[in-house]
Design goal:
Blueprint (H helix, E strand, L loop, with lengths): L2 H13 L10 E4 L6 E4 L4 E3 L5 E3 L10 E5 L4 E5 L4 E2 L5 E2 L4 E5 L2 E5 L3 E7 L5 E8 L8 E5 L4 E5 L4 E2 L6 E2 L4 E5 L2 E5 L3 E4 L4 E4 L7 E4 L7 E2 L4 E2 L5 E2 L4 E6 L2 E5 L4 E2 L6 E2 L4 E4 L6 E4 L3 E4 L4 E4 L9 E5 L2 E5 L4 E2 L5 E2 L4 E5 L2 E5 L4 E2 L5 E2 L4 E4 L5 E4 L3 E4 L4 E4 L7 E6 L2 E5 L3 E4 L4 E4 L9 E4 L6 E4 L4 E2 L6 E2 L4 E6 L2 E5 L3 E4 L4 E4 L14 E4 L6 E4 L4 E2 L5 E2 L4 E4 L5 E4 L1 E2 L2 E6 L3 E4 L6 E4 L8 E4 L3 E3 L5 E3 L2
Parallel strand pairs: 19-21, 31-33, 43-45
Antiparallel strand pairs: 1-2, 3-4, 5-6, 7-8, 9-10, 11-12, 13-14, 15-16, 17-18, 19-20, 21-22, 23-24, 25-26, 27-28, 29-30, 31-32, 33-34, 35-36, 37-38, 39-40, 41-42, 43-44, 45-46, 47-48, 49-50, 51-52, 53-54, 55-56, 57-58, 59-60, 61-62, 63-64, 64-65, 66-67, 68-69
Length: 607
């Protein structure tokens, strides 16, 4: 090469010494001339000046272009849904740098091309998405087809709901890296920017500002004045999740407190609209003004449920609308006063319960108006559904299926099932308060209501759990589910306690004479020096003083160690080793090895 040629090349390289790979669409420079000789993606080609130029000339009606700029040879108007891009063509995505036939091929810096091809090789989606967008911020691995994050950068967590990256673990949604909603059953504590479990104070809560009270509730739940999330709208103060105690001004709690309505004394209504549907049992709905009015004060509407056109059209439950348009406890009533029938239709008889029945001499009938008890010396023959005179063996009989065998005696009489005759049970003898004997007629088999039959003496007493009594008010021995409180002669349930002072009843059979400690424990339990019944039978290892150190935990059962009562059966929570000292055996204090103590005293296997 002669000196003249070298001089020319040198001069050219000096003029175009700005060729840099990656700039101006150039992907390869000539090392001698420092000119670009290969451009990006064949969309651009080297120009006469050593740079890159657009390989395509703009043509109206092609490549989604409607109108070209003739001087610059770029498209200035595109088809609907497409926009002119920086390459002079048309693309259906903003921030596109290179496009071809309407498809984006390359995005601007800090943007990525998101899209996927369909079965015909066409792209269903082809857009430029910012790397700094809310859903890609702090993302390390992006799904290029779906445009969502697959893995976050270090110290960031991938949300399970919107797949955004936040600094909060268990986050469901976030905005610019800040959590706005936690996963289900957790709320966001803004104070320390963490997601926490929804405890009783934070049930159905989404967000707390100070970490002490709730400030935002889940959908369909409302924040009350005391900052609890409840299911009742217009509620200021709640008794529980679905029970409102105090409503907003102008609203009243319904009968069960399940809704706040605009009408006082409402039984139930629409919790969102505040409209009453039905009034409580002592009120009727007046459709003129939508108000609940007392059906106890006004005799005309007494026991009425719905009033229309100044007349009762429906009565409350267990009341019937009579021919006089008043509500009474009976069908076929012609006239009533204060809900009590005083005159029946022809062919019906008025009983002492103010009901109309087809059975003559019937005193009391049920809500189906069938006779259940006859008046005076009459008894009910169930087979014929008639009241007949009780004579001979049927004297003092209340109900029988066939003569002369009585089935149920009148009050203050018991049925002897040996001869089916009714005898007095008022006398203080072995059949006192008895309702029926066994087939031998020698011992009581069933007591009247509110009396209990002793298993050992077959006598009736008022004491539940008593098996042997001195009289109806004093027990001498209780069954295994009860402890005999010696001073009072009563039976106390012995599987729990109401206070620290009365826990000596637990597994106790009988107290001391003062009723201050246990004296006799149930079988399998040992009386401690504190007067408590302790289970050491299921102890696997003892201390030097004889107290239990470790309870057994095998196929026979699972027991946890309780400081007061020894080994307590906890088959429902077999991973508990030490349980609460106040007999709250559902609350564990210390778990077995390999388990971790969680909130509410529950043991869970360590991961």
């Amino acid at each position: 090469m002669n000196n003249f040629v070298l001089l020319i090349l040198l001069n050219i390289s000096l003029i175009y010494s700005s060729c840099i790979v990656g700039e101006n669409h150039c992907i390869k420079c000539n090392p001698i001339s420092n000119l670009c000789f290969k451009c990006d993606k064949d969309v651009y080609v080297p120009d006469e000046e050593g740079g890159c130029k657009n390989a395509h000339k703009c043509q109206s009606g092609k490549n989604k272009c409607l109108a070209c700029d003739e001087n610059r040879q770029i498209c200035k108007e595109c088809s609907d849904g497409f926009i002119p891009d920086e390459n002079g063509g048309c693309s259906y995505t903003y921030n596109c740098e290179v496009s071809e036939e309407g498809r984006c091929l390359k995005c601007k810096d800090n943007y990525i091309l998101i899209g996927k091809e369909d079965m015909y090789g066409e792209y269903e989606l082809r857009i430029c998405k910012s790397l700094f967008s809310d859903d890609l911020r702090n993302c390390e691995d992006i799904n290029m087809y779906g445009g969502y994050c697959q893995k976050c950068k270090e110290n960031y967590f991938l949300n399970s709901g919107d797949r955004k990256c936040s600094t909060t673990e268990n986050c469901f949604k976030s905005s610019f890296g800040i959590c706005t909603e936690c996963v289900h059953k957790m709320y966001y504590d803004k104070r320390d920017e963490t997601c926490k479990n929804q405890t009783e104070e934070f049930d159905y809560c989404l967000e707390s500002i100070d970490g002490k009270t709730c400030d935002k509730c889940e959908d369909s739940y409302y924040l009350s004045e005391d900052k609890k999330c409840i299911a009742v709208n217009y509620c200021l103060k709640a008794r529980s999740l679905y029970q409102c105690e105090e409503c907003e001004p102008g609203y009243y709690p319904s009968y069960y407190g399940t809704s706040c309505v605009k009408t006082e004394n409402c039984y139930n209504g629409d919790k969102d609209m505040g409209i009453c549907y039905t009034c409580d049992p002592k009120f009727y709905m007046d459709y003129k003004d939508g108000m609940c009015k007392s059906n106890r004060e006004d005799n005309e509407y007494k026991f009425c449920k719905i009033i229309k056109e100044d007349s009762c059209v429906e009565c409350i439950e267990n009341y019937e609308l009579g021919l006089d348009n008043h509500c009474s406890t009976s069908k076929n009533c012609v006239e009533s006063i204060n809900g009590l029938c005083i005159e029946c239709n022809d062919g019906y008889y008025l009983g002492s319960d103010s009901k109309c029945t087809t059975v003559e001499h019937c005193s009391i009938s049920n809500y189906n108006y069938e006779c259940v008890e006859c008046e005076g010396k009459y008894y009910l023959n169930v087979t014929s559904n008639k009241c007949l005179i009780g004579e001979g063996k049927l004297e003092n009989c209340k109900q029988a299926y066939s003569n002369p065998y009585c089935e149920i005696c009148k009050d203050e009489f018991y049925l002897n099932q040996k001869d089916y005759v009714c005898y007095s049970n008022k006398e203080d003898n072995e059949f006192y308060k008895c309702q029926r004997t066994d087939e031998t007629g020698e011992k009581c088999e069933e007591c009247i209501d509110e009396y209990y039959l002793g298993e050992k003496d077959n006598k009736c007493s008022k004491i539940e759990g008593c098996v042997l009594s001195e009289n109806e008010n004093k027990c001498l021995e209780c069954d295994s589910f009860y402890c005999l409180d010696v001073p009072s002669g009563t039976c106390v349930y012995n599987n729990n306690f109401e206070s620290e002072e009365t826990r000596f009843y637990y597994k106790c059979h009988q107290t001391n004479k003062d009723g201050t400690a246990c004296e006799i424990c149930l079988e399998g339990y040992t009386l401690s020096s504190d007067g408590l019944c302790v289970d050491i039978e299921h102890c696997a290892e003892k201390n030097e003083d004889g107290s239990c150190k470790i309870c057994q935990n095998d196929i026979e059962g699972f027991y946890c160690l309780n400081n007061a009562f020894g080994c307590l059966n906890v088959n429902f929570n077999s991973s508990c080793w030490k349980c609460n000292d106040i007999l709250d055996i559902h609350h564990c204090d210390e778990c077995l090895e390999g388990y971790t103590l969680k909130e509410h005293g529950i043991c869970e296997k360590t991961e």
